[in-house]
Amino acid sequence: MATEFFQNLYTREENINPDIIIDMLEQCVNEEMNANLYAPFSEKEITDALFQIGPLKAPGPDGFPAHFLQGNWGLLRDDVARAVQRFFLDGIMPDEVNDTAIVLIPKKVDPEELKDFRPISLCNVIFKTGSAARRNFYAYKLDMAKAYDRVDWRFLEGVLAKLGFRSQLIQWVMASVTTCSPEVQTVLKGILKYETVCFEEKYLGLLVPDGRMSKGKFKPTKRKFSKNASDWAEKYISSRAKEILIKSVLQSISTYAMGVFEFPMGLVDDLHKIIRDFWWGDEDDRRKMHWLAWDKITRPKTQGGVGFRDLRVLNQALLARQAWRLIQFPDSLCARLLKARYYPFGDLLDTAFIQNQSQTWQGIVYGLDLLKQGIIWRIGSGSKVGIFRDNWLPRPGTMKVEGRRNNSRRRWVSELINPITRAWDDVAIRSCYSPTDSDAILSIKLPARASGDFVAWSAESNGIFSVRSAYRIGVNPMIQRLSQGQSSSEPSGDRSIWKMAVEDSHHALIRCTLARALRDETRKLWRLPPEEDFEYNGKEWILQLLRSIPKSDRPKRPVILRTIIVLKIRWLSPSG
């Protein structure tokens, strides 16, 4: 439908004679101008033209942006220059070079018909290079295209001839515009409600990692944070509602991008500030007291915090998942490509990587630092596991062998296993290592048959990586640092007494202090059962309680229960 519409729009109308308008034009191009335009193209002009094109502008049908040719210009220079120069010598445009993808951009907010869209041509980079080499001349051609909704190629050819351009130049232009083979791609931005951001370098909703990933490139993420927080702040919602919105909405906005890129520290600080201001009720013209430091708010509730996530640690935990996938799926195309590029002769876990890295790989290396803290080797043959280098002891705290008793030269775990009996060499282990390490080593069960060593995730019982457990490992050092010197009896800061306060229906209506006080006051006016009859005796406690009351007093009991509920709700409300 779209192809048919624009073919009809740009079809020549036979009843219109362009000669009337062409005769009104005067010649304005002299021989000196023609001579400059007709001069042979040098390799420097072609190179300058190519590097003037935006590296990540939308590519043509061949799919190659200018960044590809610019990055490989040393290899492709001769072929591209020869192709451009050949066109300007014989005037023949190969069909593949001038293939064009037409993208439809809406002219108004809510487009309804195809006429409400403006067609934009996405040309191949080689074609752009040739047209940019004589920018002044082709700028005139582009102005002609913008000035008319319907273009008649006879009219364009007549105008160029009347203005005084040489026939060779006219042939170049006509070859460019008449040999185009358009492929219509309807990108209906208005219908899909696509929001144009301040930069265009995005793919599948993510930034294209070109150059340094400064916090300025993440402005849409920060803007989305601010907009949601400001919209909610106007509704004067309770603290409980704020907590839910922060945990379920605000802190999940950036999760997708955090799983690919390492966020700049300045951006993370800005996002944390937006969350803090929303939580404590700050506004543009009014600032409130922040009663608790942010690093304490991010602690779990069982340790005196609110349970908000530290986005810096969450970013690292999400990137650690990417590194885990490279370990678990080494034969995937992505893993093989990254291995060939960054560690062709080594292993992901024990390689010192080069400094000149892509932004995506820098993120993986950042997550790898956290991943190394939680992985553990499961022993098969022990030939891949270093005794002192790797994590392989299944115990809390350090999973490495901490020291040795003598100058043993054993390096690999396989040297501690009897190859015949497939059992640990008890004598050698206890003579070389401390009792604590020896007990941990001997507690490992070896397979009956020799098998390969493999990596597992120590923070989960099933050995499979999870972002949740990786986040706990990442925040654990901060929690331990904050727990030093506190009044809690637990060194870890755990306040297990909080777990004992379980709010159920019996507690809310019977055991609660408010409920007891209400019953005491009610007994002054009504006859109530003794307190021992209100004890919990199963899920149907309330039905049994009502059956035990005389029929004459039963209508009063629901009134008491309803009063308790109303008092409970008022007590828990923000207004008190």
Describe this structure as you would to a colleague.
The protein is built from 26 helices and nine strands. Among the domains are: 2-192, no CATH class; 202-291, no CATH class; 502-572, no CATH class. The strands form four sheets. The chain has a three-stranded mixed sheet. A two-stranded antiparallel ribbon has the order 4-5. Strands 6-9 form a two-stranded antiparallel sheet. α12 (219-233) packs parallel to α15. The model is unreliable at 135-149 and 182-200 (pLDDT under 50). It is mainly alpha-helical and 576 residues long. The longest helix has 18 residues, at 73-90. β4 and β5 form a beta hairpin. Helices cover 46% and strands 6% of the residues. It has helices at 2-9, 19-22, 31-38, 43-51, 66-71, 73-90, 125-132, 135-147, 153-163, 167-178, 189-192, 219-233, 239-248, 255-258, 265-280, 294-297, 311-328, 333-342, 359-374, 426-432, 435-442, 467-483, 505-511, 513-522, 541-547, 556-572, and strands at 99-106, 117-123, 181-185, 202-203, 206-207, 375-378, 417-418, 423-424, 454-457. The two termini are 64 Å apart.
Structure described in brief:
The protein is mainly α.
Strand content: 5-15%
Helical percentage: 40-55%
Major beta-sheet overview: 3 strands, mixed
SS field, number of helical segments: 26
> What is the number of strand segments?
9
Radius of gyration: 37 Å
For the termini, the CA-CA separation is: 64 Å
Q: Give unreliable regions as ranges.
A: 135-149, 182-200
Mean pLDDT: 75
Task: Give the overall form.
Answer: flat
Structural class: mainly alpha
Strand order of the largest sheet: 2-1-3
